[in-house]
Design goal:
heterotrimer, A mainly alpha, B alpha/beta, C alpha+beta, A: Helicase, Ruva Protein, domain 3, 6 helices, C: alpha+beta, six-stranded antiparallel sheet, four-stranded antiparallel sheet, globular, disordered C terminus
């Protein structure tokens, strides 16, 4: 009877499937790699992020970034490393520098400009537009049109 | 009145930029290394694996570093140009075999000819990354102080060599 | 022979287009009814000719005629028929033919549904559309001929890009082009009004249905493109702020502003000049998009094969059409009077503010898309502008617009009071804020963006409910239901469209906040659990398709022990172009998508696999569909059906006398 009990103990182990392991060696570092890589541009497949591209250079660069993460380099240091070699092209988030100020401030300027134009237009309207008084003739025509409309609908 | 002309004016500016844009190549990534010292490295040589090569070895000379690989189509295209340059002997061209297999590289050179006095082997591609290589072939012009003065992305052609590279080499020699 | 017929048809169409683009406009200027009446038959004739050309190209594809260069470049003998036909618009030349064909469809539609328009206006509208058509036909006949021959003929074609061998290819470009090209009608209306000097409420009322229908198509087209990318590209993304995606989004933003602006011009006669400018802008952005995609000026995954000659042609065309219309605008717009006055706080001013925000958003997208080009042109280096920029900039601009969406419909025309509005909306505001703050905790995680997204969508829904309740209470009716049906369809269209946006925002917020991704190596028999679902990998086997060889993986998905579904992701190698493609397996549900994508084969039959759980992601495209349905509902409103039926029977005196005084 004892061997039957043993079998019953083993069955769950036989039936339960193995949990798949993560592809990456170090999931925490990999998560950080992902966070960085989705803001970096692949130079070969230029319409993909470094995270998504399957190009050999992208794999090489991901390897480099992984090594830098292992060396405990900060995000900014890793970005600087890549920019030093490939220029600003590799960043999908344009850096804060003189040539990019218009880019980052532009939307705000557009909004402020639009709002200013709106306010000015409203002011101009307020000064100029005067509602014309309605004459009797026009009033009669309005009655006529309204009654026509009712009949039709 | 003037404010009604504003959209037209803005549009004209836009068209101007777009017209210039037609002459540019959005895919080309210019190198931030031009004007900076060539990154140091020590790589094994292709023909004699015991020996190494390093840019420091070239101090005092003006030279070209040509990054190539046996699997690269553009390299085959530019190879005759390199052979001609090597024959003319105007400027030494040192090769860097990028992410390649040694036996395939040797076979390729045997088939197409060897314009390089020496070839460094960057098997893992790490040095390529230091040099900002993103596609082969790429060629660097490096001056006597070891500073990169020019980078060509893509195959060389005779016109570029005659009009840009050789004059630059001459200028750097005279400094 | 057939391709030559097609080619000849295009040449004839060009001649007709030239006639259509010149005589009616001249006729309208001098008041010649004979010349103006040329417009209708010319437009219909052009439609027949371009249809003929389109069918000839279709025949060449169906019959696998590889002596036509375009067919050889985009098709293959093993390509299934429906993809061979979709390949008509698979590359540059054919997609231009599609563009032109759709333009003639809209032209013909205008000829059928415009009998209530004054003759001069209709002549000018068709004339303008004819001029646009001249540009495209000329472009095709000079540098982009789809009927060019390949001599000697190719033995077999180069095949359609595998990425395009998908149902999305059949629907997305036609829908998108219906939208882009549809804005040419609104554009033509605007130009006609500027030329004729009769820019008024009637013009706006006539313009509205055309603009709305075009907008609906564009909404569907963009949604299809996004859904297709999600489904097809294998990495679960649905919007990348890619230059070509932006090129379709900008006309959409301008078109949305235009729809709202037209509503004001229609109802109150206000914003006339601004509305005209928006109409010009919306179509200009469509044309600009055409330029960006085909000129090689920007890198994009969508870009067609580029050629500087083509880019130059389109740029010149762009300069003439847009430059010409903006010149006309600068000349004629100052003469247009102001419409009805309104207070700084009123529905008009809120709609105007909404317009400002939408146009600012559109401008920001344009700025981000073209900035790398600007810097490069000025020699200031090469940068990239991608999703981090657009995401950062877009949300702050759209948030106030969505707040206005709740307040605007409740505000009175001409003069409203802020304190009174606040009073009416206090319940909606309170509920939205409290729920938005607390709900994330219930769902498991709290971030500011999560709350913001929920707040915006709840705000739209609650304010809409307040609006409906108020509207119904104003109707003296019997049952609640009869009051609801008494409200005009245009109103329900607005409600539906706005709610569509709420649904869209929920989708985006929930996906971005709660999606889970896992990159795993799976041996046969192994499982992984995400989002409560357990995926078991049952191995992969080789499968042969019509023009590809695939490795097909089998996954059984269970939840809490109960079987949910089987999923079969594939990794395909297309035989002709030797391209490797990931066909992800997606199990769609109302509340979540399960997404499985095969990576690389590893040893012993194991594979690297990517699993995703994406909650509410189908609400993104569902929301877009609801928006489009709202638009269609609005167009089916009585007043448009009546006005179409009525033709010119009993036109109100006011309009006729107005015509006389202005013409």
């Amino acid at each position: 009877m004892r061997w039957l009990a043993l079998i019953f103990l083993l069955i769950p182990a036989l039936v339960q499937a193995e949990e798949a392991k993560p592809l990456a060696q170090n999931p925490v570092a990999e998560a950080r790699l992902k966070q960085l890589a989705i803001e970096l541009r692949c130079l070969v497949c230029q319409n993909q992020t470094l995270a998504d591209s399957n190009a050999p250079l992208a794999e090489d660069l991901r390897r480099e970034v992984r090594e830098m993460i292992a060396k405990n380099m900060s995000d900014q240091e890793i970005i600087d490393f890549l920019v030093q070699r490939y220029g600003d092209f590799v960043l999908y988030r344009p850096q804060w520098k003189a040539s990019n100020i218009l880019l980052w401030i532009g939307p705000f300027l557009l909004l402020v400009g639009g709002a200013t134009a709106l306010v000015m237009a409203l002011k101009r309207r307020g000064q100029g537009g005067v509602d014309a008084p309605v004459t009797d003739e026009e009033r009669r025509r309005v009655e006529q049109l309204l009654s026509q409309g009712e009949r039709r609908s | 009145m003037k404010r009604f002309l504003l959209p037209l004016v803005l549009f004209a500016v836009l068209v101007g930029f777009l017209a210039v844009g037609l002459t540019l190549n959005p895919r080309e990534v210019p190198s931030p290394l031009v004007g900076k010292p060539a990154p140091a490295f020590t790589l094994p040589q292709l023909h004699d694996q015991e020996k190494t090569f390093s840019p420091a070895d070239m101090a005092g000379q003006v030279w070209l570093l040509n990054v190539w690989a046996s699997w690269c189509g553009g390299c085959k295209e530019e190879h005759p140009v390199l052979m001609r340059m090597a024959k003319a002997g105007d400027v030494p061209i040192y090769g860097m075999d990028y992410k390649d297999r040694r036996d395939e590289a040797l076979t390729w050179l045997r088939r197409h000819g060897n314009p390089y006095p020496l070839i460094a082997v960057d098997e893992a591609g790490r040095i390529g990354i230091d040099y900002g290589v993103y596609g082969v072939p790429e060629t660097y012009v490096i001056d006597k102080q070891g500073v990169i003065r020019y980078k060509r992305i893509g195959p060389l052609d005779d016109e570029l060599v005659a009009k840009t590279i050789l004059p630059l080499v001459q200028e750097l020699r005279n400094k | 022979m057939i391709p030559e017929i097609g080619h000849f048809a295009l040449i004839l169409a060009l001649c007709v287009a030239v006639v259509q683009g010149t005589l009616p406009i001249y006729g309208a200027a001098v008041g010649s009814s004979t010349l103006m009446s040329v417009a209708k038959p010319a437009a219909r004739g052009q439609f027949i000719l371009v249809l003929l050309a389109f069918c000839c190209l279709g025949y060449a594809f169906a019959a696998k005629d590889f002596s036509v260069l375009y067919v050889a470049a985009t098709s293959n003998s093993h390509l299934p028929l429906h993809y061979r036909l979709a390949a008509i618009w698979g590359a540059h030349e054919g997609s231009l033919l599609l563009w032109t064909f759709i333009l003639t469809i809209w032209m013909v539609a205008v000829t059928f549904f415009s009998s209530h328009l004054p003759e001069a206006m209709r002549a000018r509208i068709l004339g303008v559309m004819g001029l646009v058509s001249v540009g495209f036909l000329l472009f095709m006949l000079t540098v982009s001929n789809p009927f060019e021959r390949l001599i000697p003929a190719a033995v077999d074609g180069r095949d359609l890009n595998p990425l395009l061998q998908d149902p999305g290819m059949v629907l997305h470009p036609p829908m998108l082009y219906m939208g882009y090209v549809g804005f040419s009608v609104a554009f033509a209306f605007a130009i006609a009004a500027l030329l004729g000097g009769n820019l008024d409420a009637a013009w706006a009322r006539w313009s509205r249905p055309w603009t709305t229908v075009a907008w609906c198509f564009l909404t569907v087209g963009i949604a299809l493109g996004s859904g297709w990318a999600y489904y097809e590209l294998g990495w679960g993304g649905w919007w990348f702020w890619d230059p070509v995606e932006n090129a379709s989004f900008m006309p959409w933003l301008a078109g949305t502003a235009l729809i709202h602006s037209l509503a004001v011009t229609d109802k109150r006669g206000g914003f006339k000049v601004w509305t005209v400018l928006l109409a010009i802008m919306a179509f200009s952005l469509s044309l600009l998009g055409t330029f960006l995609v085909r000129s090689g000026v920007l890198t994009s995954v969508h870009a067609f094969a580029t050629d500087p000659k083509r880019g130059l042609f389109i740029l010149v065309f762009l300069a003439i059409v847009i430059g010409g219309s903006l010149l006309l605008y600068a000349w004629r717009a100052p003469r247009v009077g102001l419409g009805g006055g309104f207070d700084p706080v009123s529905r008009e001013s809120m709609l105007l503010a909404n317009n400002v925000l939408l146009v600012a958003a559109m401008g920001s997208v344009l700025l981000g898309t073209l900035y790398p080009l600007f810097l490069d042109a000025l020699g200031l280096g090469k940068i990239s502008v991608g999703p981090p920029y657009f995401d950062t900039v877009f949300v702050p601009l759209m948030t106030p617009a969505i707040f206005l969406m709740g307040i605007g419909p409740l505000a009175q025309w001409k003069k409203a009071s802020l304190p009174e509005l606040a009073m009416r909306l206090r319940w909606a505001f309170g509920v939205s804020v409290v729920t938005a703050l607390l709900l994330p905790f219930v769902l498991g995680k709290w971030t500011p963006l999560l709350s913001l997204g929920l707040l915006l969508s709840l705000w739209i829904v609650t304010t809409t409910m307040v609006n409906i309740r108020e509207r119904v209470s104003h109707l003296v009716g019997n049952s609640f239901l009869s009051c609801l049906t008494a409200l005009p369809r245009a109103y329900w269209g607005m409600v539906l469209a706005h709610c569509g946006i709420a649904v869209f925002i929920v989708g985006v917020t929930m996906v971005k906040g709660f999606e889970v991704e896992q990159d795993l190596r799976m041996n046969v028999g192994e499982t992984a659990t995400i989002g409560g679902y357990t995926f078991q990998f049952d191995g992969a086997r080789e499968v042969k398709g019509p023009n590809y060889l695939a490795a097909r993986g089998t996954f059984s998905v269970t939840k809490a022990g109960r079987e949910v579904t089987m999923m079969y992701p594939e990794k395909r190698l297309y035989s002709v172009q030797k391209q490797m493609m990931t066909e992800a397996a997606i199990d769609s549900g109302l509340l979540r998508d399960l997404y499985v994508s095969l990576g690389e084969p590893l040893e012993d039959g194991a594979w690297s696999v990517r699993l995703y759980h994406k909650p509410f992601i189908d609400w993104i495209w569902g929301g877009c569909l609801i928006m489009a349905l709202g638009g269609l509902l609005a167009v089916s409103d009585r007043r448009y059906r009546l006005s179409w039926r009525r033709e010119r029977q009993e036109e109100p005196e006011a309009i006729r006398s107005q015509e006389k005084s202005v013409a």
